[in-house]
């Protein structure tokens, strides 16, 4: 019970005891901005370099830019401590209510096997080989970090533990144990000062060179312990006379953190006034401190830049421009002073006020060895350094940039563009006018050329034989052909700075990176080439290198290699704006808003490489589980990648170069400096590979390329299975429609067959009645007429009656023949027609020549076509007998595979042209009837006069044929009727 009370006292003191303010003696310690709480209990830097923070708001990870907070839905308190990292990359911690958790792949897991509800205190934890050990009222809780199985060892109370090289030292209630995987929990002997009941004794879980440390509170003492065989020996102690929070072990130091200061046991260094709970070093060499009152603090690695103090400069004055002069620096200040500073002696040769009303000196440029142009915010001056002579150029208000050659000085200013000849010469003036297409006006009194347009930047390109100048930020080219806008990719160029080095023109644009103009081409240097800034404010040539000042970090462009250089160590720019710079003797001097800095131009430390990691992937704003499968549905097309880059000193200078590789696109892009997420929205189905790598302006690219391949699948309605299903449904619909049509046709067949049977029955009845009833009656009348005609009193009417009865009898026989269903055959039709035609010639002097065909197909024909053909042939022959005056008539009927052919020839007078049926009309009813009957049979009629009339008729057999309904069905239709067992009759 006493231990419980003392532990509660310790916790209360740990949380409440704090200093009042940040102390001046530790000015290097800075507040780490952005962390949301001022009460932090533990820190850890993991193997990747990320900083983990345990505070009263839970656990968070920091990468120099972003804080990511972690929690569990069943976490009953947020205050956490005991941050540990196992070899699998899991981060372990516990809260003050005794729950144990671990973080793995962005997920927080509660260790269910640790029974925190039955514990009196929160556990002290440590990692030993492949095991997590935690103190408990039940002994020691042991969890295998490989398979996450857990067990309790022993049945005695344990309070704290310390990991040694090959054993774990464990303290209980004034009892000591040693633990190994092989021996388990083993009781050992303690030799040291006798414990005092009023104090609380806690082992620190981390050790220094196999020395364990025992904190004693409220006595404020730290005891050093060594484990030798089965004995714990006290080998020393240090009294701090203050409550001890923790002991922090760093790779090169050992800190005891008390509520009034932190003290190094190695070198005596002290950090006072922060009430620290932990001290860790990150992989860059920065020191992170957690305070119970001030929150997260940092002591950055010493910056390479040093402040340059200019003797004689007013305390409130600021250097804002500089230019190298011999081995000295010519400095222009905010208050309008011009000073000459010698870095070797650190003395100022002179300091003069350019003009009482000069304003700040914003620009300095040399026009020859000793003469310089100095531009203030109001005027422009020419200064001779040895003579300290200052001459105001009254026509030029504020020079922005200048360049020169052996002929003239070219100045861009707020009052216009000026060309000042080196000497007064009519010949030189004519040359200048010809060089620039006579676009300048000439001031004879002061011997200069001018163009009254506000100019910002200027450069003379010897490679182009032209003057380049920006007017209202639009870049113009002035040469012998006059003045015209300079175009790149058919677009105007908006430029802020110009410079010419080795006959190449360098253009710093407002929003499109840098252009390099050579004699024959234009090269575009952009973020694709590693440029950090889209907007270039100033290009400063120093020793064949171009220093680029833009919206991003400082960069160097090597003009000889024509490439950006990214492996130099640059100072931190996070808190100041760079106004101007120049170099001399391997040192770079940089005028900033915080003062004049100097730093050596050296390459970054070899061996240190930037690290980058893919922390997690969000799909549709949900973290995608790392299950090994990277297949997304078509609706999961918003993908965000979070890249972790553990870098702290200049984290906001680092950017990410990335490419989303597809079959057709391999374009590389860059994020803004400091950005850590890459987001793609509304991606189309397909296979993608994200390639990303972090880039640091000083350290270059990261040591490994991040690669993540994923696939967005086609929507289900565009998948193969759906297409097959849709095709099958379409086939079923077609089949259903086809079967429905077939059923309708079969239904029609039944109706048709029924109708045909009725028609055939009626034809048979009519034929039978005419044959059986009408025929005998007419024959009887004929016999009576014959008998009456033989009597003596017979008149001429009797002969007429007899003839009429004979004609009627013949017609009745024709009707009986045509209606009799047994005669519906092509062969019978042809034979019957020949027989009836022969009867026509019984009383004629004309000879009939008929030619019966050898083969006649066995074909059932319709009654209509049978009667039509018979009447057609009869009428043609009758007309020939009656009108042709021929002695011979030839009749021929035959068939081929497709048609029935009828030919009637005579050797008579022929047929007059006006009676030709082919002309659409005829003077005789006979030819009209012939034509009408041929058309009904879909036939062809031909009449020729060649020694008589020759009538040819061609009738398709399919027109004559009786088609049975089953024959109208295809093989497939018949097969379907059989499969579906549909009756066809």
Automatic annotation (TrEMBL):
Entry keyword rRNA-binding: no
GO cellular component: cytoplasm; membrane
Cofactor: [4Fe-4S] cluster
Keyword Lyase appears in the UniProt entry: no
Swiss-Prot/TrEMBL catalytic activity: ATP + protein L-histidine = ADP + protein N-phospho-L-histidine
CDD domains the record matches: HATPase_UhpB-NarQ-NarX-like (cd16917)
Main location: cytoplasm
EC code(s) of this entry: 2.7.13.3
Segments passing through the bilayer: 716-739
A Pfam family: HATPase_c
Enzyme class, broadest EC rank: transferase
Function field: Member of the two-component regulatory system NreB/NreC involved in the control of dissimilatory nitrate/nitrite reduction in response to oxygen. NreB functions as a direct oxygen sensor histidine kinase which is autophosphorylated, in the absence of oxygen, probably at the conserved histidine residue, and transfers its phosphate group probably to a conserved aspartate residue of NreC. NreB/NreC activates the expression of the nitrate (narGHJI) and nitrite (nir) reductase operons, as well as the putative nitrate transporter gene narT.
Protein name, entry field: Oxygen sensor histidine kinase NreB
Taxonomic lineage: Bacteria, Pseudomonadati, Bacteroidota, Sphingobacteriia, Sphingobacteriales
